């Protein structure tokens, strides 16, 4: 053994070929500080050894190296631009020293190589990949770009157009694409990986391959003339800038950086990369996005804990083949859990099946699945009008109409058909889980499983614990949600659960603004500019004005002190006019189908007249005031949910809002948003609007925390 560290060891393989192995004691290899220090040691040892003729870099884990250690980012970024540049220059020196080793190098990539993990591969002369592995530079998703030479080496290796796509898109690229684009040199079966890497090294040693020419290519200016260069970068800027939008600066910064160092040699180019990186890493968006990544990890960890204590669901069932039931059946089947889909209406069953087939067809067209896989998935859905086969079902999701009486009777009916210990979960949006449980003989086996529409696209599932729900029921439901590829977040029962409880105060803010004379078009524009995927009026149309009115009533009854209101709201007026939103083509907007059959939103000139009496006479509102009046109730209600233990942690609350209602990710979530503003500033802002009612009044604990200078996310969890 030439070197043996905690994570890295280096040993001779044969004929002067050495192997540098990443073998972390954790589940994956990351390039944390300690590992980078060991890497330095390993390179020093290799340089000092006379008989080395070639080096192969490998991993003992399922993945190769998943990237830098993101938990270290916030500390690094908080040190300021100069310190970041200094830190990067040290790592770049280390990476360059791998590239300059006096013998050929090959990365034998057996699984995921991402970010820094792929940048290390780029320093090698050759890259061999197994067929199932993926490689990429996903840094832009964290608000940064590759800072360990990725923006320099990749365009020199695969060309500017490809590098723009890889770096600005941040995708994990499959082996076939990586090979086609030239990012790797060979793709082989896993059992051939070592031999293929060794073969390449022997070829270099024998002088068959000119590995030094490859180094020169990665270290020289990009070989395009000025006009070609301008065309490549300028045309990409338009497309990528438009796609990223104004709130996500990283992709554009990556292009600009690549453009500005395109004519430079490696060392100068690395300095430019580092300076741009430092600027990006110290802007406001990066900590929010890095924080979200870490919150997501925490949510996953919580999910895994639940999962560990239970058995997977082998056979599921869904009651109701409507919008939600059909979507749940599709999701379950396409992810490999067979599901019975029961309805009382044969036509509904057919509609549910047609919807699943349509979604699978789209996957087929996009090449995501093949025909046998599609047939298998469809075969996983068994439509039925009876309870005949319910005797071996592990978990049932009830998704019938939103009516407590109907739900209670259906739940009691199905309970009688289920084997002992099977779990029942309701997809109700508004009805108390504890209340529904009163219809059951075994309330301990019952919980809520709240999906969002459209099921196949929305990542969140709220798992709702009623008063009598057992730990096993929660765990099994969490495990099922994970098997469906969703992110489950466990919450305690209350009106609206977590997500709707927080969303309706936001809608209340909207109604109050209209009542006071604000223009709904301006509000939508301002809130979309703030970062929401759609403004509140548009969102209400998509949710359905009838659904919103119904849920609003439930919330008002549940929290009369702050969610009840007097007089007819604009939303209620639309409901009484039967303008139900997108579903019937008329709501705050009117909708026409475009050529693809998708509803197109149009301004309805009639609306102001129709709303007369439910809205105040027009008055000017500044954008800042609109944002404050919309966001304060949402934020305070999120805090209440945390304080009351409806949600387990600040991280879960923020993730639920991002995944459930599209809270702008670059703002990090409601609690992070408060943190960033400063709790004291937030309370002072809220106090300016206290006459609008209790929704605008911070809790006592918020004021205490503000006085004590506390935050919802400490240094570490924000990192
Ligand atoms: N649509 C949404 O955006 C959304 C989002 C989250 C949750 N939810 C909730 O999901 C549930 C279903 O909503 P949806 O929008 O799919 O409704 P839907 O009206 O589209 O479908 C309901 C289906 O249930 C069937 N049904 C009625 N009684 C039944 C019974 N006794 N046994 C079996 N099937 C029966 C109906 O035939 C219909 O096909 C509701 O509780 C709703 O609140 C809806």
Index terms:
binds nicotinamide-adenine-dinucleotide; seven-stranded mixed beta sheet; 51% helix; globular; alpha/beta; 20 strands; 719 residues
Question: Secondary structure elements and their pairing?
Answer:
Layout: E1 3-4, E2 8-14, E3 17-22, H1 33-47, E4 54-59, H2 73-78, H3 81-99, E5 105-109, E6 113-114, H4 116-123, E7 126-130, E8 134-136, H5 150-158, H6 160-169, E9 173-174, H7 175-181, E10 186-188, H8 193-205, H9 211-219, H10 226-244, H11 250-261, H12 266-281, H13 285-308, E11 316-319, H14 323-334, E12 339-342, H15 346-365, H16 371-379, E13 381-384, E14 395-398, H17 404-415, E15 423-426, H18 433-436, E16 446-451, E17 460-465, H19 471-483, E18 487-492, H20 499-515, H21 520-530, H22 536-543, H23 545-558, H24 560-563, H25 570-576, E19 590-593, E20 599-602, H26 607-611, H27 623-643, H28 650-661, H29 670-677, H30 679-688, H31 700-707, H32 715-718
Helix pairs in contact: 1-3, 3-12, 5-6, 6-10, 6-11, 10-11, 11-12, 13-19, 13-28, 14-15, 15-16, 20-27, 21-27, 23-25, 27-29, 29-30, 30-31
The structure holds nicotinamide-adenine-dinucleotide (NAD).
Q: What value does the Rg take, in angstroms? A: 28 Å
Give the total of beta strands: 20
Name the shape in a single word: globular
**How is the largest sheet built, in terms of strand order?**
13-12-11-14-15-16-17-18
User: Which bin fits the share of residues in helices?
Assistant: 40-55%
Structural class: alpha/beta
Residue-averaged pLDDT, rounded? 96
- What does the main sheet amount to? 8 strands, mixed
Q: Which small compounds were modeled alongside the protein?
A: nicotinamide-adenine-dinucleotide
């Amino acid at each position: 053994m030439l070197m043996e560290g905690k994570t890295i060891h280096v040993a001779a393989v044969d004929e002067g070929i050495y192997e540098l192995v990443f073998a972390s004691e954790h589940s994956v290899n990351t390039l944390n500080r300690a590992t980078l220090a060991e890497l330095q040691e390993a390179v020093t040892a290799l340089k000092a050894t006379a008989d080395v003729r070639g080096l192969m870099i490998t991993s003992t884990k399922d993945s190769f190296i998943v990237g830098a250690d993101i938990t270290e980012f916030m500390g690094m970024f908080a040190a300021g631009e100069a310190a970041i540049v200094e830190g990067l220059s040290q790592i770049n020196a280390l990476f360059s020293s791998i590239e300059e080793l006096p013998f050929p190098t090959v990365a034998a990539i057996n699984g995921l190589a991402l970010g820094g993990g792929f940048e290390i591969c780029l320093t090698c002369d050759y890259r061999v990949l197994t067929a199932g592995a993926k490689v990429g530079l996903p840094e832009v998703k964290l608000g940064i770009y590759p800072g360990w030479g990725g923006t320099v080496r990749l365009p020199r290796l695969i060309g500017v157009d490809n590098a723009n796509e890889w770096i600005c898109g941040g995708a994990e690229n499959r082996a076939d694409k990586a090979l086609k684009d030239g990012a790797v040199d060979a793709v082989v079966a896993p059992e051939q990986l070592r031999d293929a890497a060794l073969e390449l090294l022997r070829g270099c040693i024998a002088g068959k391959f000119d590995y030094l020419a490859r180094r020169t290519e990665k270290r020289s200016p990009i070989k395009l003339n000025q006009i070609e260069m301008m065309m490549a970068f300028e045309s990409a800027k338009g497309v990528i800038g438009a796609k990223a939008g104004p709130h996500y600066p990283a992709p554009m910064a990556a292009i600009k950086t690549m453009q500005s160092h395109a004519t430079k040699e490696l060392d100068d180019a690395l300095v430019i990369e580092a300076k741009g990186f430092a600027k990006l890493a110290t802007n406001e968006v990066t900590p929010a996005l890095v924080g979200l990544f870490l919150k997501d990890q925490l949510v996953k960890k919580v999910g895994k804990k639940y999962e560990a204590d239970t058995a997977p669901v082998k056979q599921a069932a869904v009651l109701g083949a409507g919008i939600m039931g059909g979507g749940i059946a599709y999701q379950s089947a396409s992810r490999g859990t067979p599901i019975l889909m029961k309805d009382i209406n044969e036509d509904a069953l057919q509609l549910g099946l047609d919807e699943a087939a349509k979604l699978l067809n789209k996957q087929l067209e996009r090449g995501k699945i093949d025909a046998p896989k599609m047939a298998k998935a469809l075969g996983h859905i068994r439509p039925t009008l009876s309870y005949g086969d319910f005797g071996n079902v592990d978990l049932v999701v009830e998704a019938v109409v939103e009516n407590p009486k109907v739900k209670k009777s259906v739940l009691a009916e199905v309970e009688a058909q289920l084997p002992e210990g099977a779990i029942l979960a309701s997809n109700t949006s508004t009805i108390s889980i504890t209340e529904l449980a009163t219809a059951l003989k075994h309330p301990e086996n019952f919980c809520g499983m709240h999906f969002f529409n459209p099921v196949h696209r929305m990542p969140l599932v709220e798992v709702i614990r009623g008063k009598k729900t057992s730990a096993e029921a929660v765990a099994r439901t969490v495990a099922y949600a994970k098997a469906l590829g969703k992110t489950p977040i466990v919450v305690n029962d209350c009106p609206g659960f977590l997500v709707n409880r927080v969303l309706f105060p936001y809608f209340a803010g909207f109604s109050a603004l209209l009542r006071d004379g604000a223009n709904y078009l301006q509000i939508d524009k301002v809130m979309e500019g703030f970062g929401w995927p759609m403004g509140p009026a548009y969102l209400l149309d998509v949710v359905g004005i009838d659904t919103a009115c119904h849920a609003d009533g439930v919330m008002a009854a549940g929290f009369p002190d702050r969610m009840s209101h007097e007089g007819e709201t604009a939303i209620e007026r639309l409901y009484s006019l039967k303008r139900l939103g997108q579903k019937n083509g008329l709501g705050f907007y009117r909708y026409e189908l475009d050529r693809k059959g998708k509803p197109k939103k149009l301004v309805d000139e009639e609306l102001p007249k129709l709303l007369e009496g439910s809205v105040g006479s027009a008055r000017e509102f500044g954008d800042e005031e609109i944002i404050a009046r919309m966001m304060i109730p949402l934020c305070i209600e999120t805090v209440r949910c945390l304080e009351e233990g409806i949600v387990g942690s600040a991280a879960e609350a923020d993730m639920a809002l991002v995944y459930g209602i599209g809270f702008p990710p670059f703002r990090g979530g409601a609690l992070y948003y408060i943190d960033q503003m400063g709790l004291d500033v937030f309370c002072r802002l809220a106090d300016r609007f206290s006459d609008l009612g209790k929704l605008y009044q911070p809790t006592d604990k918020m004021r205490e925390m503000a006085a004590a200078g506390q935050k919802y996310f400490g240094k570490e969890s924000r990192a």
